[in-house]
Amino acid sequence: MIENLIESIKCLIYLEFMDADSRMRLIDVARKLFAEKGYEGTSTRDLAKASDLNISMISYYFGSKEGLYKAVLTEFAQQAHDKMKPLFSDLDVEKFDKKNFEKVMHAILSGMLPMKAKNPEISVLLQREMMAGLPYAKEIFDQYFTNMVEQVVSVIALAQKKKIVRPDINPYVLFLSLVHASDSFQNMSQCKTSICDKVPHIPEKIDEYVDQMYKIFIEGAML
């Protein structure tokens, strides 16, 4: 009796592990295929073949191809949100000074840019999605990315109030320019042109790249 119960528990644990493994395998494969072929150019048959899973597994885990596409973006958005959240929770508004601002902004870049570098397909997916007018991911943007942008903007706005950052700079323009400049730089670095030899290679020299982005966008290029 007890032996049968133990075997049943082992079986359930195994099935749960296989479920999680299959789900993540589909997400990993989908991230690459959607980035390479686009949403419309990727079929459920392509996804099933590349993941070596039955096509029915897409419906089982995600409901549809669109559900899988959204899961890919949500997975990254949730990770980014969880990584960035602690940076804002301990912010002391009263004691906020230039040193705090520099520390927070450097931490934001050190968290955001390496994550984007480790997930180059996500940058491609997001750019495709935005160019198309967010047909599938507007809800995800509103739930995760918009919230993160607002948090960073609030830090820049606080720095303006404390006379740390110039008042004539739009915080949204500053941060969004930084984000999308990093996307374009990352995509350019994948092209392997001769000019790529003159800039920090990503992800090998990500720390050098983070430092450059900080100096350009936060400290400013002028002497």
Write the layout of secondary structure elements.
Blueprint: H1 2-37, H2 44-51, H3 56-62, H4 65-89, H5 98-118, H6 120-131, H7 138-161, H8 171-189, H9 206-219
Helix pairs in contact: 1-2, 1-4, 1-6, 3-4, 4-5, 4-7, 5-7, 5-9, 7-8
Task: Provide an overview of this structure.
The chain is mainly alpha-helical and 223 residues long. It folds into two domains: 1-63, Orthogonal Bundle (Arc Repressor Mutant, subunit A); 73-219, Tetracycline Repressor, domain 2, CATH 1.10.357. The chain is built from nine helices and no strands. Helix 1 (2-37) crosses helix 6, helix 4 (65-89) packs antiparallel against helix 5 and helix 4 packs parallel to helix 7 (138-161). The protein starts with a helix and ends with a helix. Residues 7-18 have low confidence and may be disordered.
Give the oligomeric state.
single chain
Number of individual domains: 2
> If you consult CATH, what is the topology of the largest domain?
Tetracycline Repressor, domain 2
Count the DSSP helices.
9
Low-confidence stretches: 7-18
**CATH class call of the largest domain:** Mainly Alpha
**Helix amount, in percent?**
over 70%
Number of β-strand runs: 0
Major β-sheet, in short? none
Q: Mean of residue pLDDT? A: 89
How far apart the termini lie comes to: 79 Å
Question: In summary, what is this structure?
Answer:
This protein is an all-alpha fold. It contains nine helices and no strands. Helix content is 74%, strand content 0%.
